TrEMBL record:
Secretion signal, residue range per the UniProt entry: 1-18
Highest classification ranks of the organism: Bacteria, Pseudomonadati, Bacteroidota, Cytophagia, Cytophagales
Entry GO MF terms: carbohydrate binding
Species this chain originates from: Hymenobacter gelipurpurascens
Key words, A-Z: Signal
Entry annotated with the keyword Transcription: no
Entry-linked Pfam families: DUF4382
Protein name: DUF4382 domain-containing protein
The keyword Signal is assigned to this record: yes
DUF4382 domain residues: 32-181
Family matches, as InterPro entries: Carb-bd-like_fold, DUF4382
Highest rank taxon of the organism: Bacteria
Amino acid sequence: MNLSRLFPLLLAAPIALASCSKDNDSSSATSSKLQVRMTDAPGDYQQVVLDVRQIEVHLKEDTNPDGWQVLPFQAQTINILEYVNGRSALLVDTDFAPGDLKEVRLILGPDSYLIGRDGQRYDLKTPSGQTSGVKLKLDKATLREKETFQLLLDFDVAKSIVERGNWKPGNDKKERYLLKPVVRVLAQDIRGGLRGTITPAAALPQVLAIRSSITVPDTFSTAADASGAFQLSSLPSGTYRVQFYPSTTAPANQPAYKVVTRTGVTVTNDQVTDLGQVSVN
């Protein structure tokens, strides 16, 4: 994200960035926020690329085939080995009606592959019985109004990729490996937060909280009110870089307002991190 290019826009009007907290959006005042992320345990390959086509959640009992709802997701290939050791890929971030979720289904296409330690590409074939998708049951997954709920899909590469016992060097590379996804799903409310007070309050800054502990970084935004106070809610836990962009110009008899950055800010679930007073001059 190039913030230097973004800065002129911040001065002109409130920014419109993807955010887990849209408290000012009246159209979603009573909705929940649903996120789906994917992470991985390390595997002994250079790359493992998954062809992810569709993500769905089931809202009704198992016996009801009409309970599936397709989530807004653009089909894409994901090198899952880029998302290890606490990193995760954000797949879905959407407003969603409060209520219970029963299952999540991950539908993979035919174009998954891996790059082995030998540098060769091997297609990953999916057994015919799994072409309808990987279904994962959810236990006590309830979305509540104005809160963010996250489904973290923990993909286990080491268990998911199976080498055929009768394959030998020189055989068709498409026949060496099978993809039998082993995925664990972690469901959790996201209730971390940030707050503080800007001085001088007349600077009316935009506030960006950028979660730098993941790839690609998440960005959340809000604006300080007339008293200088600000708060961001429903933040995932992690380490953030918080930036303050004044939206007004200081009076002639005062020091100029400036962009201020706080780094290494820790957000913990179920807690609000207080940044105290932040001076922008």
